[in-house]
Design a protein that fits this description.
It is built from 22 helices and no strands. By secondary structure, the chain is an all-alpha fold. Helix 4 (63-91) runs parallel beside helix 6, helix 5 runs antiparallel to helix 7 (134-145) and helix 9 (161-180) runs antiparallel to helix 15 (292-298). The chain is globular and about 60 Å long. The mean pLDDT is 83.
Amino acid sequence: MTVNTGTSATKELLDSPVLKSAISKASFRLMPMLVILYVVAFLDRTNVGFAEAALEMDKGITAGAYALGAGIFFIGYALFEIPSNLLLTRFGAKVWLARIAITWGIVSACFAFVQGETSFIILRFLLGVTEAGLFPGVIMFLAAWFPNKVRVKMFAIFYLAQPFSQMMGAPLSGWLINIGDQVPGVHGWQVMFFVEGALAVVAGIAAYFFLINSPQDAKFLDKDEKKALLDVMALEDTVKEESGPRGVLAAMKNGKVWYFTVIYFCLQIAVYGVTFYLPQQVAQLTGQKVGLAVGLMAAIPWFFGIFACYFIGKAANTIVRRRVWGTGLFLSTGLCIFGSAWAGSNHLPALGIIFITLAVCSFLSIGPIAWSYPTAFLTGTAAAAGIGLINSLGNLGGFVAPILRTTVNQVTASDTGTMGVYALGVLPFVAAIMMYATKRFSNRADDLLDDK
């Protein structure tokens, strides 16, 4: 397909009512299923926080083994991320995303049968292996469906799965534990793992029927809408191919890819440092046992995160706004993590919940902005490799976060865990500096954005 990459042609394409109609239809048709998939994925990777104390009591899993198991998920995830992305380009998103959801759901359900530290750690590793490729696969999928101008908004809608998962999942996990504890012969945490794993299998089957691989295959678009969407995506791909890396090896050697890997690593330190321990931190702040009540209070930060993520993602539609918002949100994340630790050490539960809420709102809103940068210069197999590399190595922050927090607490003899929380709040400041420094980058794909 031949496309005109001139400025007037670009604005004409982006301002076309037909294109806007196509984007609206695609969003309505695809986004709900993608959100559901990530809701279940995020629930299954973080519900272990609700079982921490019970696993120690019932199966003798120590704090160190829990931290290793919580983090080793990301080793399996990292090892199989790029191969999974490349297989997605071969088999299509419809088949591959469904396969991912079904297999990780089966592994997640198997946590109900954990017998000790070894089986817990092995299953956490396998959970990472089976889920590998879901998140970057969806990022690639959205980058193929939606132009740069609206991509952060679509990423933000997808990211709503995280707060929805925690807002609904936290009370659900607490409720399943309470209900399960009343069933003879089983523990509440076993019921939680089994039911939530089964939900992923159901979601995977549904994804096969609801997802569509590309705009070319979209029967819900009329002829003009399909042409408008294909034209604007072809225009962006032309620019990416001219100015970005081509092929797997070129993407993996690209300096910008590694730059955004570091930024994403710092972000994930904050995300999982807070998420894995949120139920325990809320319980400590309020003096209650982990259960339904703590689950409801742990849902508060995610409720407010929904609005922050959506409206900031919608507003960040120029390169300047993305840089300013991204820098400010990283600073806010670090400061609020510090604030939650300070409130906890001074026995101020209400203030602690407020700081945690602001931290969650901040780091949730950063993700869609951060992903707008690599998807603006990566396409084809370079996108599969580059996005996979950023996500896999960046997600190692989820491996480092619980170990860092536990190690710092042990070294400093912090009974309240305050020092470990402080340690997690440092890296977002590093990422803020790096995000601001992106003003030195030049990228032709950014010229497709309206900077007014």
